[in-house]
Design goal:
This protein is mainly α and 272 residues long. The protein has 12 helices and no strands. The protein starts with a helix and ends with a helix.
Length: 272
Amino acid sequence: MALVVLTALGAATTLVGGLGMRVGRGIVTAAAGAVLQLAVVSAVIVAVVRSLWLSAAFVLLMLVVAAATSARRMTDDRSGLLAVVPIASGAAIVLAIVLLTGVVPPVGIAVVPVGGIVLGGAMTATSLTGRRALDELDGRRGEYEAALGLLERDAALLITRPSAAQALTPAMDQTRTVGLVTLPGAFVGVLLGSGDPVQAAAAQVLVLVGLLAAEGVAVVTTVELVARGRIRRAATAGARPTWRQRAEGAPPRPPPHPRVNHARQPSPATMQ
């Protein structure tokens, strides 16, 4: 009952606030989808976590879903599927460190939740970074093309790097205020399971620092892919081609029509 009321409250607030029917509908569908997905996943995880190989396969499935989601958020172009690279890079480095150091035991019940948390953070950072970087290149195209006296990658980095750092702001704020403003899920989960508060704090610090590391790798990798033109916006009819599209053979813009001087020309008799 509480779930229905909260969902209705969120949808109604967006409608009254003038955010549009699409946003309100999105809240309802997101809530319904979350309930369905968690119900299915809960049943699947019970079987998956008993096997390390099945757990690894489930983490790979989460990676595929995360990459597809991030790709849709960034661009309609198929190049957005390269979101799998920054997400996988950030998550793989963090998971390798925590597993090799023995902080997280190599068992399904530990690998699946930690992998999901890290992949989720890397996905969010990739989506925010890629979308903002592409927006910056579109909105500041004049500056970008004026800077093409540099290498194209360097010119793109000059435009996109300052805004890319903002993708790390949510994770950094969460880490700075943990325990003071927020009590995240890993901490509360250990406490609810009658665990030691010290163990709960250690688990939460591990999760937060791991998220920062994974998101940092994802942000840097995404900016690099955008700067190199590997992730780009889909070309639209009538749009001015980018420098890269012109270099790759996009049809050039037609030359401007010659200006006609309508001023009255002197007659030969007058000239004499």
